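Appendix B. Extra example for self-study. Work through it before the problem class; the solution is given directly after the inputs so you can check yourself.
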Amino acid sequence: MTVRIVDRRQDSRNKSSINRSRFIRRFKGQIRKAVADAITKRGIRDLENGEKIGIPGKDISEPQFHHGKGGVRESVHPGNDRFQQGDQMDRPPAGGQGQGSGQASPDGEGIDDFVFTLTRDEFLDIFFDELALPNLIKRQLARIDEYKRVRAGYTQSGVPTNINLVRTMRGAAGRRVAIGGPYAARLRGLLAELEQVLDEMPVDEAEVERLQREIACLRARAEAIPFIDPFDLRYSNRIRIPEPSTQAVMFCLMDVSGSMDEAKKQMAKRFFMLLYLFLNRNYEHIEVVFIRHHTAAEEVDEDGFFHSRETGGTIVSSALKLMQQIITERYASSTWNIYGAQASDGDNWNDDSPLCREILADSILPMVQYFAYIEITDGEAQNLWQEYEQLAVTHAGVFALQRIGAASDIYPVFRELFRKRLA
Amino acid sequence: MTKKRSRLIAEGSDWTLESIAQYDTEIGRLARQFGLDCYRHQLEVITAEQMMDAYAAIGMPVYYHHWSFGKHFLETENRYKRGQMGLAYEIVINSDPCIAYLMEENTLTMQALVIAHAAYGHNSFFKGNHMFKQWTSADAIVDYLVFARNYIAECEERHGLDAVEQLIDACHALSNLGVDRYKRSPPLSLEKEKSRQREREAYLQAQVNDLWRTLPRHDAPFAEAEERRFPEEPEENLLYFVEKNAPLLEPWQREIVRIMRKIGQYFYPQRQTQVMNEGWACFWHYTLLNTLYDEGRVNDGFMLEFLQSHTNVVYQPPYSSKWYSGINPYALGFAMWQDIRRICERPDDEDREWFPDIAGSNWRETFEFAMRNFKDESFIAQYLSPRLMREFRLFSVLDDDSQAKLKVDAIHNEQGYRALRRNLAEQYNLGSSDPNIQVWNVDLRGDRSLTLRHFAHQRRPLSSASLVVLEHLATLWGFTVRLEHQQANGEWALLAERKSDRRKQGGR
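Solution. Structure tokens for the complete assembly:
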């Protein structure tokens, strides 16, 4: 008698995933807050991964009736190396070596944060909870230029290359059985009859001949059933379904003039990062174009974008012009969803600001899904802001602008910019 | 096939299903030789991830869903991934057939250890010990859990996740005071549960309605001084009381309370026999595998690996170590069983004086008796020997909050043995470590408030979490809930009160 051994390794994993999602559902409030904290504290690359989250242990404790501290307690411990009966000693400080009572205090105080790791998807889900990209409509409804072919069952007509042999032969076999069945049954009956007649003495020749004729006739009819009939033919069917465009390009425009210090750049970086992550959730393929500018604009890679320092004045329109140029050169096709994000401290040559507004209004905004401008400053609004404010009115829904004072403002601003808008 | 080679059961450290089966056969043969009486068992090979899943569900193969299990899962996963803990090598389920999990990562040696430990050690304990016999029905538990999970899932669909979650939260909060300690619960079975559940719903509701029939009567004579208490006898099983008497619970809520109570009851013996049970399993894996070695069926490498794991498991750090977190039940239990065998086989004068009944007796018979008839508290009180107290260098500390200092009131010497043993046994007495809180009265003629009384043990107060628990109780009860405690002068005073009146919130 051997034991029964069951190999469960192939069984469903993640039996606990329901419990896990229940947990996240239950403490969504706290987790959301922790996620928001994590964003403001951490750098870009961590965010691509899951996030370690701490929520107050007190909130999630499971209370039960227990004894608290106090009263009379006896406790027995091993490893006596110095005590004699009657020895007295001070109470060990709470949380010291477990010499006092071994019961952890369920008193609520002193319970550490409950730390756990959210998977990347869980993290982003919470992170982007309630957010929806504006004008996602394009993705679903806008002009569709691409189709893909997918299987869609079988049809009775088509081109010979698409004949599906298995289906066809199956149908043919079924048809042959269905039509030939009655003949076969009668044939069996006649054969049996014939045998009987032949066995009898004397043989009734006329009867035998009649039977044989009938049998021959039946055989001929059974054989006349076609092996394959045009009726049997089945063709694999393929249909074209429209494929929504799922690629996006994101333009990051940033002022790198002398007035943008490292802290402001870091803030801008976070904003871009959030936008990137968000787009990442919605599009399969995303390209990012980094454009930095002071008095002149240039396209750079990510490293150069965030880490080089230039000095000099600021002409914002140079960057917008470059963006417009790149769009026409590389992303003109309607398969691209274009997003723009601009960060600046608001400094600009006074007479350049109206030009910026014109470029945006006339050539950029009609092409993009969304353009967000954030101004990182705690000072007075300057002329660029004022010009852009007009845009926000005329192009509501496509253009948005916000001001950010400190790093902790980023998340609320982000939510504000991309919050779910009523259709 | 040379003679020497054929003796070994299997070689190498990688396991295969065949080699596991061979080990099981051999270990089973020895276990029968030793006279272990086990349920049939089934070995299940699982991955580390599944082991963590199993952890979250307290090892049960099926379990209802609740966020707290998700929390435990996250906790385990987090600690495991950071390397702060290894997973247990095994989980074994008290069911018939007994299910033992083998983790994929284990080496062949470890699998053999687990088989001996779980499939024969724990298994025979589950089958033999009176606590398990009395409180659990191994043949029905898996069925019951299936019933429970389906029922709760159905309720979630019908009444919403939040309502069910709130109810289960409340039950969990009361679960340690939701067990019968003194009388046997009827056996659970899926068939019976299903057929009876509907009947019970109707019947219970009718019963509860009796509470309602005694509507407050304004013209009743005011001085009905000796008003009858309800319940007439205090009830210590809070969940039972709620299930049977809470006026506002819907039938499905009542059923869930019952499920929680039943499951809590199922785990109650485990809490009470930790030292014995783990010690027993350790004793048997140690004995069985050593016997295999003596027979030449396993080689030295196997034994070295096995002993390393074994000693890790039964290590008891001293109180001053930074690893110290109380007495290790594996260490204490294993040492005690080993010691009992020693007393039986090689008693000295001290043993004859302390244990006249068992010194020199047949160790297997003594073992059977001890395993069947005790729980941790009584087991220690009965069998902890002075020699073991010396080996563990036990000492007992008195912490009286009315005194400025802690006092060592017994150590491992002639004067201290008995006190030490009594104190250690008391430490495993759930009756005194769980607070004694009982349902005292329901104000039937007034506001239907429920009054609980806390009977303090050694002046120990309740922890502050009790207030939250009281809140949970109030949601179950539906009316005001009060908690009283006894003051120094013997009078009962109100400790806490949670007002609740579901009727007014449009509940009905």
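Self-check: The longest strand of chain B covers residues 436-442. If your reasoning did not lead you there, revisit section 3.
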